[in-house]
């Protein structure tokens, strides 16, 4: 089964140490689901299971812990995306409570029954878009590639289906399968363009699965049109810098208006903003649907 394979893969990558500190020790009698014996905050040991220290989501999580008075004494356990997913999978398998820093689109929402906690203070920034940016001069240098990249758009369900499939097969194959099943959308993206003969283009992306899925889909469409495509995964700040300096041609990875706002403000005058390729993204605290909690404000300060 997919989840069995996924569990083995995640645990093999992260090891036992990344699963420590998730607040599940000694809770066999209560899993924090509102049974009255242990509240959710105590059950998760006043800890948010997070991702990489340098991720935009990590800073949003830190801002949230400071903004909510009821989160006084709470801690963010920084690890990695793989570590967070391993801890989430482990908790769900044992039907235990856990709160993670999460985002959508992401395959975990297709694999598990999850929900975001309401964020009344809006510290996570509300609805996010995945934006497309390009270097200045790309439209003049490569008008056909520019038009395809500018026209490209898809839905949350599309990207999550590709990323979920990539847990069992290579991302390149998952993207190719999706393209084969969605030729009507591809036709819209390439309409009005002409094929080229080996023109090189570099797409810069962040190294997360959703951005890898987007880049693979766009890269394969461009390759069908005769382009030689290079995909370069880098950290977010390097991504913006690369486009602003012309060292990369385009990126379909920025999350705006909140996640990458700092980098966008720094480089916005030196890039071409083509608008969102996907709308409906979201950041926040994510919990399994079986947990009896709906809002960040339902959590309690550490005693």
UniProtKB/TrEMBL annotation:
Chief location category: membrane
SUPFAM superfamilies: Periplasmic binding protein-like II
Compartment(s) where it occurs, according to its Swiss-Prot or TrEMBL record: Cell membrane
Protein name: Glycine betaine/proline transport system substrate-binding protein
GO biological process: choline transport; glycine betaine transport
InterPro entries: ABC_Gly_betaine_transp_sub-bd
Regions annotated as coiled coil: none
GO terms for cellular component: ATP-binding cassette (ABC) transporter complex
Segments passing through the bilayer: none
Signal sequence residues: 1-28
Domain ABC-type glycine betaine transport system substrate-binding: 40-181, 199-300
GO molecular function: amine transmembrane transporter activity; carnitine transmembrane transporter activity
Keywords from the named record: Cell membrane, Membrane, Signal, Transport
Source organism, top-level taxon: Bacteria
One Pfam family from the record: OpuAC
């Amino acid at each position: 089964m997919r989840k069995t394979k996924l569990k083995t893969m995640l645990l093999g990558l992260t090891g036992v140490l990344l699963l420590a500190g998730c607040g599940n020790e000694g809770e066999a009698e209560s899993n924090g689901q509102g049974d009255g014996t242990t509240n959710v905050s105590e059950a998760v040991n006043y800890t948010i299971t997070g991702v990489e220290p340098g991720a935009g989501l990590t800073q949003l999580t830190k801002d949230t812990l400071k903004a909510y008075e009821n989160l006084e004494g709470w801690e963010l356990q920084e690890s990695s995306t793989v570590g967070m997913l391993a801890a989430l999978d482990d908790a769900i398998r044992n039907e235990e409570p856990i709160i993670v820093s999460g985002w959508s689109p992401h395959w975990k929402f297709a694999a598990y029954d999850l929900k975001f906690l309401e964020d009344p203070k809006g510290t996570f920034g509300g609805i996010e878009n995945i934006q497309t940016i390009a270097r200045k001069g790309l439209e003049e240098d490569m008008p056909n590639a520019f038009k395809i990249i500018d026209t490209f758009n898809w839905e949350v369900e599309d990207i999550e289906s590709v990323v979920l499939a990539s847990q069992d097969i290579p991302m390149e194959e998952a993207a190719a399968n999706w393209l084969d099943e969605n030729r009507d959308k591809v036709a819209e993206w390439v309409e009005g363009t002409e094929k080229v003969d080996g023109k090189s283009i570099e797409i810069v992306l962040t190294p997360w699965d959703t951005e890898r899925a987007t880049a693979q889909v766009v890269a394969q469409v461009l390759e069908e049109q005769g382009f030689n495509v290079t995909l370069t995964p880098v950290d977010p700040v390097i991504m913006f810098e690369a486009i602003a300096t012309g060292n990369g041609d385009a990126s379909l990875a920025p999350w705006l208006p909140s996640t990458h706002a700092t980098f966008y403000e720094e480089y916005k005058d030196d890039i071409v903003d083509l608008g969102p390729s996907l709308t409906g993204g979201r950041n926040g605290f994510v919990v399994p649907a079986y947990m009896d909690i709906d809002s960040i404000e339902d959590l309690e300060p550490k005693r």
